Amino acid sequence: MKNDYSQEQLLDAVRHNIVTFSDFITSLQDGVADPRLIMYIDRLLMNIYLRHLEGKTVSRSQACKLIPADHLDTCKKYVAEAERLGFVAFQNDPKDGRRKNVIPTQGLIDYVEARARATLDTASAILQHKPVQAGVGSLHR
What DSSP string describes 7-67? Predict the structure, then answer.
């Protein structure tokens, strides 16, 4: 059962916390230099994804504010770790040469949208009393 969903439907699924990263958090633990990143990655990545698709930019300092750590250096380290893992990339801000914007990689965008489609497919199957298909895929880094 494959449904086509509009970009707005996919965004709504993410905005309403239907889509999460909980299924790959465990797999990250071996490749993450600081395991505390695991506590913050979901909020960081979802906000970067949403703002990017809404046409808004997120600066590196704004991304750091999405991580509730005590020290700015720790926040910067987590944003850098998200880049190292291939979830986000840094891009020069066209209006301010000193500023770096944080954007989601295509892999992250594809993953979130696949999760949203699978979640909406599951909800649709349940509502229509059809068999629910398992499997959503994984985030390719």
Answer: HHHHHHHHHTT-S-SHHHHHHHTTT-SSTTHHHHHHHHHHHHHHHHHTT---BHHHHHHTS
